[in-house]
Amino acid sequence: MRYSFVIFDIDGTLIDTEFAVLSSLRDTIFDLKGIRYEDKELKFALGIPSEEALLKLSIDNAQLLEAYNLWNKKFERYIPQIKLFDGIMPLIEKLHNKGIPLGLLTSKDKIEFEKDFAPLGIMPYFKHIVTAESTSHHKPHPEPMIKMLELSGIKAEKALYIGDSIYDMECALSANVDCVLALWGREGIDHIKATYYAESPLELWEILNP
Fold this sequence. Notes:
Blueprint: E1 5-8, E2 15-16, H1 18-33, H2 50-56, H3 61-76, E3 83-84, H4 88-97, E4 102-105, H5 110-116, E5 128-130, H6 143-152, E6 159-163, H7 166-174, E7 178-182, E8 196-198, H8 201-208
Parallel strand pairs: 1-4, 1-6, 4-5, 6-7, 7-8
Antiparallel strand pairs: 2-3
């Protein structure tokens, strides 16, 4: 296998949270500002920290904590609809059985991470985790990836990052890490630059094992 360390984004890559994230954000903004957004208008919020998304929606600093807490509360009602993408569990098990260490690099903070990812039961497979609190800068800045490489002790050329957004790809490439755009978690390539493109977790396995 060409890569000795495989790193995953979470939302839109391992788990399908798009409906939960966008619906709860839509509800939050409506409650706070009386503005009803369409889900497509909020897709920019996928893949960036929650506070950053709220600031982009003109939530000022004085209201930021209230908005963040409300969004978390709204999100809880949608948690039962979050699930692993088809093919993810077999892929994770194959990598684990090959002895390949796995990492998680996410824009989620620890509270979000423990609420909507940890209960899915696949945490034991992942050796290293970088969340929003781990670095000062966030994706697409390379700092989260650099932090992940430091934690793992793996050189950039031996790591592969899998994500579903332009933020993921730019974070990896700016840190000289190869990356895969996970097309099963998004609609189309949209001219996003990546080292590889995979339509399914099975296709990703084929990239890892040419």
